[in-house]
C-alpha cells in the first residue's frame, strides 16, 4: 500500500517549521528520519495533510554543551552518535546505546527526536533518557519548555507533546568521573526491538543511582527502592531484591516476561559493577 496524498514541506528554519505546525492545527506532522512515520504513512495508520521535514534544520542538528548539560539536537541521527561524529558524545552512554538500535540502515536516518516522539515502549532512547536523568526540550510557536524524560512518555506511543509542538533537543546531564553505566536488552534477533531491557546509572560520589526497565507495555518504569539500595550500599543488589523490585514495577507481566526483566536488570547491574570499574 502507498501513503494517502499529503503535502511535503521543507522549512529552512525551526521558526518556520513551528509556524507550519501551528497552522496545520493537528493535520501537520513533523518527519525526522521517517523510519517509523514512513511505514505508518504507507499503512495509512496516519493521514496527515502536511508532512514537515525537520531532518536538516540547523537548530536541530547541533550538539553543544551548556553548563552541566549536553544539548543533543532532535535531528541528530543514531548513526552519528554511534560513529562519534559529535565529540561531546564520544565515550558516553549514548554512544554505546546508539550502536545497538535497530539496523545500520535505520540508524543512518532515525533521529533522537523521532524516536522519543514515537514513544515505542521498547525503544532505546526513552529508556536511556530516563536513566540518565535527561530532559526533553519541547518547542512551539509560543516558546519552549523542558520536561523531565521520565515524565515525557505517558504510555505506549503517547507523550507530553501537544498540538503544534515538536521536540527540539534532548538535554543530557554531564556525568562525573565516578559515574558507572549499564545497559542490557534481550532481543529475539539483532536489530529487533527489545523484549526486556534495563538501563542503570550509579554515581558513587554524588550518591545518585537510577535503574529503569523498558520494553513493557507502558513507559519505562523506574526501580526506585533498588536504586536507593545501590546508592546507599554501593553494591550490586542480590537477586531476590531485584525480583521484588521488578514485581512492583511490572505487576502485569507473566512469569516468563518477568524472568527476562530480572535477567536484564542483573546483567545491566553486572556492567555497572564490573571489576574494572572498581577503584
Ligand atoms: C525494523 C525496525 C527496527 C527498529 N528497531 C529499533 C530498536 O531496536 N530500538 C529503537 O529504539 N528503535 C528502533 N526502531 C525505530 C527507529 O529507531 C526510528 O528511528 C525511530 O522510531 C523514529 O525515528 P525517526 O527519526 O525515523 O522518526 P520518524 O519516523 O520521522 O517519526 C516518528 C514519529 O515521531 C514524530 N517526530 C519525528 N521527529 C519529531 C520531533 N523532533 N518532534 C516531535 N515529533 C517528531 C513524527 O511525526 C512521527 O509521529 C526500529 C525501526 C524499525 C523500522
List the helices and strands and how they pair.
Elements: E1 7-9, H1 14-24, E2 28-31, H2 37-42, E3 50-53, E4 63-66, E5 69-73, H3 78-82, H4 93-98, H5 104-109, H6 112-118, H7 124-132, E6 135-140, E7 143-148, H8 149-152, E8 153-155, E9 158-159, E10 166-173, E11 179-186, E12 196-203, E13 208-214, E14 221-222, H9 224-233, H10 239-249, H11 255-272
Parallel strand pairs: 1-3, 2-3
Antiparallel strand pairs: 4-5, 5-10, 6-7, 6-10, 8-9, 11-12, 12-13, 13-14
Helix pairs in contact: 10-11
Bound molecules: flavin-adenine dinucleotide.
Residues 29-37, 54, 74, 101-102, 106, 109-111, 113-115, 117-118, 120, 123-125, 161, 166-167, 193 line the site of flavin-adenine dinucleotide.
As a percent range, the share of helical residues equals 25-40%
Give the strand order of the largest sheet, numbering strands 1, 2, ... along the chain: 4-5-10-6-7
Extract low-pLDDT stretches.
none
Class computed from helices, strands and strand pairing: alpha+beta
Task: State the order of secondary-structure elements, H for helix, E for strand.
Answer: EHEHEEEHHHHHEEHEEEEEEEHHH
CATH architecture of the largest domain: 2-Layer Sandwich
Task: From the alpha carbons, calculate the radius of gyration and give it in angstroms.
Answer: 19 Å
Assess the beta-strand content as a share of residues. Answer: 25-35%
Assign the CATH class of the largest domain.
Alpha Beta
Query: Given the structure, what is the number of helices?
Result: 11
